[in-house]
Amino acid sequence: MLTLKKYKMEYKFSDIIKDVAIITPFKHYDYRGEYIETWNQQYYDVFQYNAKAPSKWVQDDISTSVKHTLRGLHGDNKTWKLIQCLYGSMLATVVDMRPESPSYLKWIQVPINDKNRTQVLVPAGCANGHLVMSEFGIFSYKQSEYYSGAENQFTIRWDDPSLDISWPVDNPILSERDKSAKFLELKDTIKAFLPNE
């Protein structure tokens, strides 16, 4: 009989945004295909203790997109997300929008795809987005809070010069929301982009 320890996922924290975790879930391959454990409470609880992540997820969502679609950058000040690519290949991007954070306005990019099965734990107060690099992609994410509409989130321009994010495309496919997002002004704080509480 196999012990649970053998099935444990692995993780590391980003050197740039300290509480962003990059996770490699347990994977098993054989002649039939593959098996991936995408969530196991007893192992993922580690993030509750060392990153103050929630232990409870209340909503799962999936989006499908064609090549060069860029969704985001979106976030709010209370929702944590656990993101992954179920099919295809994407470039996940996380931007720290917390003024009190030592990594405020810094960003990281993580390739996520159906080969590496990498997951990214995104803290509340950070914006996240993903660019689809394959012909088609399926994106999945868990949320710690119920989605309450775009008006209760902030939207950051993908090409904001104050962030200078490196993207491998010049003309991504964007929603109207993402096309019309305001540019940041460095004198502003995240409060300028969040709804009043």
Describe the structure.
This protein is mainly beta and 197 residues long. It is 7% helix and 38% strand. The chain has a six-stranded antiparallel beta sheet, with no helix packed on it. A five-stranded antiparallel beta sheet has the order 9-8-11-6-13, with no helix packed on it. Strands 3-4 form a two-stranded antiparallel ribbon. A hairpin with a 7-residue loop joins strand 1 and strand 2. The longest helix is centred in the first third of the chain and has 5 residues. The protein is globular and about 50 Å long. It starts with 9 loop residues before the first strand and ends in an 18-residue tail after the last helix.
What's a concise summary of this model?
This protein has 197 residues and is mainly β.
Task: Give the helices and strands, then pairings.
Blueprint: E1 10-13, E2 21-24, E3 26-30, E4 33-37, H1 41-44, H2 46-50, E5 59-66, E6 70-75, E7 81-87, E8 89-96, E9 107-113, E10 119-122, E11 126-132, E12 136-143, E13 154-155, H3 176-179
Antiparallel strand pairs: 1-2, 2-10, 3-4, 5-12, 6-11, 6-13, 7-10, 7-12, 8-9, 8-11
The helix content, as a percent range, equals under 10%
Unreliable spans:
1-5
Task: Write the element-wise H/E pattern from the N-terminal end onward.
Answer: EEEEHHEEEEEEEEEH
Number of E-type strands: 13
Structural class: mainly beta
Summed over residues and divided by their number, the pLDDT gives a mean of 91
Oligomer: single chain
* Coarse morphology: globular
Radius of gyration: 17 Å
Distance between the termini: 52 Å
H/I helix tally: 3
What proportion of the residues form beta strands (DSSP E)? 35-45%
Strand order of the largest sheet: 1-2-10-7-12-5
Q: Please describe the biggest sheet, giving its number of strands, its sense, and whether it closes into a barrel.
A: 6 strands, antiparallel
